[in-house]
Amino acid sequence: MHVSGRAAALGVLLFVLTLAYAFPLRTYLAQQAEIAQLEEDQRVQRERIQALVEQVARWGDEEYVKDQALRRLQLVEVNEQVYIVSMEQPPADQGGPATPPSWYEQVWSSVQTADDPPLPS
Q1: Is residue 119 within 8 Å of residue 109, measured between CB atoms?
Q2: Residue 84: what pLDDT?
Q3: How far apart are the C-alpha atoms of 63 and 59, rounded to whole Å?
Q4: What pLDDT does 50 receive?
Q5: How far is CA 106 from CA 11, 12, 16, 110, 111, in A?
Q6: pTM exceeds cut of 0.90
Q7: Residue 37 and residue 27: Cα distance in Å, rounded?
Q8: Is 87 helix (H, G, I), strand (E, B) or coil?
Q9: Which residues, 6 or more positions from 64, have their beta carbon under 8 angstroms from its beta carbon?
Q10: Which among 46, 43, 5 has a CA at the least distance from the CA of 35?
Q11: Can you give the pLDDT at residue 106?
C-alpha cells in the first residue's frame, strides 16, 4: 500500500491540529469545572450569609432574646412558680442499695492515689 505525499501531508496536518486543539480544550474544560465549583461555593456562602442575617434579625426581637435568656440561663419571670425536682438518695445507714461513686469522684480518687503512691516495703 502506497501513501501519496499529499495524503501523508494531510495526515500530519490533521495530527498537528489535533494536538494543537487538545491542550486548549483541556484547559477550557478545567476552567469550566473550576467556574462551576466557585459558583457552588458562592451559593453556599450566600445561604450561610442569609442564615446569619436571619439570626441577627431574630436577636433584634426582644421576645426572642427574652425566650433565649429564660431557656439558656434557666431564668424565670417575676411571679412565676418554679418547681425543682430532685432525686434524693436514701442515707447509707438505712440499708438502701449502695450507690457507686460518680465518675468525677472516681477520677479525683485516682488523682489522690497517684499523688500518694504506697511506699515500698
Answers
A1: no
A2: 79
A3: 9
A4: 97
A5: 84, 83, 78, 6, 9
A6: no
A7: 15
A8: coil
A9: 58
A10: 43
A11: 85
Grid cell at residue 99: 450507690
Mean pLDDT by 10 residues, the chain (121 residues): 83 88 90 96 97 94 90 85 78 64 85 73 59
Whole-number Å distance between alpha carbons of 74 and 82: 10
| Single-letter amino acid code for the residue at 109 | S
Which pLDDT score, from 0 to 100, does residue 32 have? 96
Please name the residues in contact with 62: beta carbons below 8 A apart, sequence gap of 6 or more: none
Please give the grid coordinates belonging to residue 39. Answer: 459558583
Alpha-carbon distance values, 58 to 23, 55, 98 (Å): 52, 5, 49
